[in-house]
């Protein structure tokens, strides 16, 4: 952000430590809140807990309160297969798009637009997202296969 202060002069970086500390800013203080490929962590914070909507709702409500009226919440998230149950996909770092939309609506948002700009038809949602680039957690195991798939298929959602 410091590399181009003219472009990024109005950016506020704030601490965020779910589930302990999740405020995103003062009420009605932001025009936009963006999140990229991390909301699955709010559904499944560690492998020793069951899936829970609590942290997701805490984040979404914090975003809602922080945004000015008409403000935008932009979400890019690893997408699970349509019709999947989040409890069956979250361990692979994926969220069904319908679940994400439902959670945002439950927090008070309205879906304004979707985009397929981050879609990847080569990713059939079979593998955990961290097997794919850029993480390639499997190291050399099946590396060529994962590189051929590319990054995960992702939903891109715009809420107001």
Helicity level: 10-25%
Oligomer: single chain
* CATH fold-level assignment of the domain at 30-126 and 154-159: Rossmann fold
Span between N and C termini?
25 Å
CATH homology group of the domain at 30-126 and 154-159: Vaccinia Virus protein VP39
The low-confidence parts are: none
Global mean pLDDT: 91
- Backbone structural class: alpha+beta
Strand order, biggest sheet? 1-2-4-3
Task: Give the helices and strands as they follow along the chain.
Answer: EHHEHHEHE
> For the record, what CATH class of the domain at 30-126 and 154-159 applies?
Alpha Beta
**Compute the gyration radius: what is it?**
17 Å
Shape: globular
CATH architecture of the domain at 30-126 and 154-159: 3-Layer(aba) Sandwich
- What's the tally of helices? 5
Major β-sheet profile: 4 strands, mixed
Strand content is 15-25%
Number of strands: 4
Quick take:
The protein is α+β, with helices and mostly antiparallel strands. The protein has a domain at 30-126 and 154-159: Vaccinia Virus protein VP39 (Rossmann fold, 3-Layer(aba) Sandwich), CATH 3.40.50.
Which characteristics define this entry?
alpha+beta, 24% helix, 5 helices, Rossmann fold, 4-stranded mixed sheet, 160 residues, globular
